[in-house]
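Example 4.3 (complexes with small molecules)
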Amino acid sequence: MLTAITREVSPRLAQCELSHVDRCRIDVDVAVRQHAAYCECLERLGCHVVPLPADPDLPDCVFVEDTSVVLDEAAIITRPGAPSRRSETDTIEQALARYRTLHRIEPPGTLDGGDVLRVGRMLYVGMTARTDADGVAQLQRHANKYGYTVRPVPVRGCLHLKSACTSIGQDTLLINPAWVSAAEFSGLKLLSVPPEEPGGANALLVGGTVVCAAAFPRTRRLLEDRGFLVETVDSSELAKAEGGLTCCSLIFKT
Ligand code: CIR
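Answer. The structure with citrulline bound is encoded below.
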């Protein structure tokens, strides 16, 4: 079975962290509706959704992906790179303790889950403003125990590695080569998003279905033409907070 941990949208979402996106007005009610539709989509695709309550003091708490790295054998609670996001991990840690042995990234290291792309036993880790060398080294120490290899990957022009590429199944990565070099992923099949849809590279694989944001119709068509099963959700309001589709859930086997 697949379990998906999600967290409700904070009423203070508009005070979120922003790095590569200009601040514009965010309608929290719309974000809440879009997030509910996202959770329904996960349920439709077979996930048991575990919704956690928002913390009004944590504007970015809906973006649970950044708070941990969930492997089949254990979970690593991160230390998010943005200081305003550090205490998001408390609630997630409590929720994950039911399912996995926990390890933690300790200060001074930083690591955002959005920078960790898992492909089989390989963990590609984006070197970004949120994830530093100490965070990667700590992740490596924990993950090595379970037989995973960690490979740091340079990223430019976007927030996280998974803004630039995501795994869509069939040994294939959906990638925006402007943000991460295709050469980092030798041995994998790569599908480049249309250049006019750079954010399309953040798609979410759930079971055998690729969930794609409604803002990227060309990416959707490309995926369908290549035989992928695609579902679309509208996440435009969460995108104003620099959130993609992977960042709103922690999906793992239970
Ligand atoms: C942040 O800057 O931390 C949030 N506003 C957005 C985080 C998105 N997380 C993700 O894509 N994994």
